[in-house]
Structures are given as structure tokens and as C-alpha cells.
Amino acid sequence: PQVDSANAGRVLASDAAVFLKKSGLTDLVLGKIWDLADTDGKGILNKQEFFVALRLVACAQNGLDVSLSSLNLPVPPPRFTDTNSPLLLSGTASSDVPWAVKLEDKAKYDAIFDSLNPVNGLLSGDKVKPVLLNSKLPVDILGRVWELSDIDRDGMLDRDEFAVAMFLVYCALEKEPVPMSLPAALVPPSKRKPISVSGAMPLIPSSTSTKESHQSLPPVGILAAKTPLTQ
């Protein structure tokens, strides 16, 4: 009922998109989910198809493949954050979450980072790629690691973003699924600040206390072009 306001037993693409965005998944993943659910390509989901979309959202949130074969797997129900829910990374909610990267691990990741000769505190995709490939993880997993760790979408990793990438790689090596979207606990404290809707990063880090995860995603085309690992 939340989505089907006219109670017509079907959901329009525009209404569904707004609702599905609350799942916190990337546009890339949501697009894939929509394509699988909208079987006849009409841009409208009936009740059955909408349930398929919800199941796929749940699969993605739990690190499973977005594919029809995942539909029969047991997954917890999908999580949607209402805009006024404290679960959404806004206000002080995200700054209160301790960073998942432990101090002793961060020291190890920093040492690797420095050994790769960062320029102005940044590593380009070319320098990070061999380190990621060295893990022998599947390329699609590494592509997702890159996408999640390049938090400001500038095609480079700073010290904190690199730590996120290493953390995710080690999780994957321990056979833990790489999430489809970055959990609040993994967003580095330095990245928890408001970012303007255009997606441009402020050049001078703001010292204000309002910390917020960015909710604006760049167009998928840019993303694909910037992700060195999926080429």
C-alpha cells in the first residue's frame, strides 16, 4: 500500500524507484533488480513482480547474487530506511557508530598504502588494482570492493578509503559476503559529512559537526567509466 497509492494492484517504475532507493543499494544494483522483476519490460510491476523485486533487494543486502536463482534462498526480509528513520545515515546517527576498521588493522593497511607511493595522499586505481588482484578474489567481487571503497567517487583511494578496501578484501577472503552497499559502520569518520547533491567533494574538509553519508549517487555511466577493475 505504501507504493501502490492508487491501489491498482500494480506499481509504476517511478514510484517503485523512489521506494527501492530507500534500500541503500547502488543505482547499478537497483537497475539490475528492476530488469529481473519487470519481466515484460512494460515499466510496471504487478504484485507478483514487485514481490520478486523485494526478494532481490533482500538478496543484495545480504551479499547474495542478484539473480533469479537467489530467489529460493532463505534471506531475512529487505530493509528499507524511511527518511525520518534514525537508521538512515543522517545527523549524528552515523558519527556515533564506531568505525569497523580496528586500530591495529588500520596501521597494517596504512603501511601497505604508504608502500604504494601515494601522490598527494591518494592512490590511483592503477596502483590499487595489483594489490586487489593479488588477493585472487573474483574480479566481480573486487569491482564491488572498489566501488564501495571509493566513497567520494573520484577514481582514487585516500588512506581511509584504502583501509575500507583492504577490510572488505579480508572479509571476502574469510568467505564473508561483500555487501552491496557500504554499512554505516564501515564509512570512515572522515567521510561522514554532507556532500552537495552534485556529488562534488568540498576541497577543504569541513570542520562542522554535521556528519552525513552521501546519499547522492553519480550517474551509472560515470561510475562504470571510473571503475578500473571492471574494464
From TrEMBL:
Domain EH: 1-81, 105-193
InterPro entries referenced in this protein's UniProt entry, alphabetically: EF-hand-dom_pair (IPR011992), EF_Hand_1_Ca_BS (IPR018247), EF_hand_dom (IPR002048), EH_dom (IPR000261)
GO biological process: endocytosis; endosomal transport
SMART domains referenced in this protein's UniProt entry, alphabetically: EFh, EH
Domain EF-hand: 25-60, 137-172
Taxonomy, superkingdom: Eukaryota
SUPFAM superfamilies per the UniProt record, alphabetical: EF-hand (SSF47473)
Designated name of the protein: EPS15 factor
